[in-house]
């Protein structure tokens, strides 16, 4: 599990594509790579990845075909910067919200507006996801825990990024047409799906057993 607080942007140093998977490596700082081990979970642009090998500061991962097709990891290239967060440890401060690295798919930047030191992004996603994306609710984009701004019926929503977030992520370099990895807030998904199921069951029962009179 992660907190959604990105620790910085780090370069991809190796990419090798194989049938069914891509192996890639990321060079971290010595501090961020400390005590890493094979099998550890690391969020790369919001995608939960497993360390398959490492040196002192370079971690290697495999992105399987399912991951490549659902996320931006299928577009990796040497020199590209990716957002990184190590998995949360017991006692860590939860500065964002519970993030699991289970990306549902990608959204597309449709508008980017700088306002002073702040950056406002409008993201387009499939309309079916919007029932889970609520004004002032949580969402994770490229692994960063963000608060949802305005939402619209056309499948777009806004996020407002402060200078500190821009400093440690790739968002400042996002342009219209760029994709971002999207993870919905799992608690919101669970609540919405549960309410829908209960209401559907109640309606089905009412149709099957209509009240007398």
TrEMBL record:
<feature type="domain" description="Lumazine-binding">
    <location>
        <begin position="1"/>
        <end position="97"/>
    </location>
</feature>
<protein>
    <recommendedName>
        <fullName>Riboflavin synthase</fullName>
        <ecNumber>2.5.1.9</ecNumber>
    </recommendedName>
</protein>
<feature type="repeat" description="Lumazine-binding">
    <location>
        <begin position="98"/>
        <end position="195"/>
    </location>
</feature>
<keyword id="KW-0677">Repeat</keyword>
<dbReference type="InterPro" id="IPR001783">
    <property type="entry name" value="Lumazine-bd"/>
</dbReference>
<dbReference type="Pfam" id="PF00677">
    <property type="entry name" value="Lum_binding"/>
</dbReference>
<dbReference type="InterPro" id="IPR017938">
    <property type="entry name" value="Riboflavin_synthase-like_b-brl"/>
</dbReference>
<dbReference type="GO" id="GO:0004746">
    <property type="term" value="F:riboflavin synthase activity"/>
</dbReference>
<dbReference type="GO" id="GO:0009231">
    <property type="term" value="P:riboflavin biosynthetic process"/>
</dbReference>
<feature type="domain" description="Lumazine-binding">
    <location>
        <begin position="98"/>
        <end position="195"/>
    </location>
</feature>
<feature type="repeat" description="Lumazine-binding">
    <location>
        <begin position="1"/>
        <end position="97"/>
    </location>
</feature>
<dbReference type="InterPro" id="IPR026017">
    <property type="entry name" value="Lumazine-bd_dom"/>
</dbReference>
<dbReference type="InterPro" id="IPR023366">
    <property type="entry name" value="ATP_synth_asu-like_sf"/>
</dbReference>
């Amino acid at each position: 599990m992660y907190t959604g607080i990105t620790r910085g942007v780090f370069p991809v140093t190796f990419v090798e594509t194989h049938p069914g998977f891509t192996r890639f490596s990321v060079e971290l700082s010595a501090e961020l790579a400390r005590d890493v081990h094979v099998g550890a979970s690391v969020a790369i642009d919001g995608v939960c990845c497993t360390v398959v090998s490492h040196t002192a500061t370079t971690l290697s991962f495999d992105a399987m075909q399912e991951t490549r097709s659902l996320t931006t990891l299928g577009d990796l290239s040497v020199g590209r910067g990716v957002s990184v967060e190590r998995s949360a440890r017991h006692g860590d401060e939860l500065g964002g919200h519970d993030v699991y690295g289970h990306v549902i798919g990608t959204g597309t930047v449709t508008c980017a507006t700088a306002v002073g030191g702040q950056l406002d992004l409008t993201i387009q996603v499939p309309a079916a996801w919007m029932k889970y994306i609520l004004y002032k609710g949580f969402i994770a984009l490229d692994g960063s825990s963000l608060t949802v701004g305005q939402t619209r019926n056309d499948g777009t929503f806004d996020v407002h990024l402060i200078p500190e977030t821009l400093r440690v992520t790739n968002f400042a370099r996002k342009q219209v047409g760029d994709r971002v990895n999207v993870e919905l807030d799992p608690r919101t998904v669970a609540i919405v799906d549960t309410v829908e199921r209960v209401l559907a069951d109640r309606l089905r029962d009412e149709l099957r057993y209509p009240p007398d009179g």
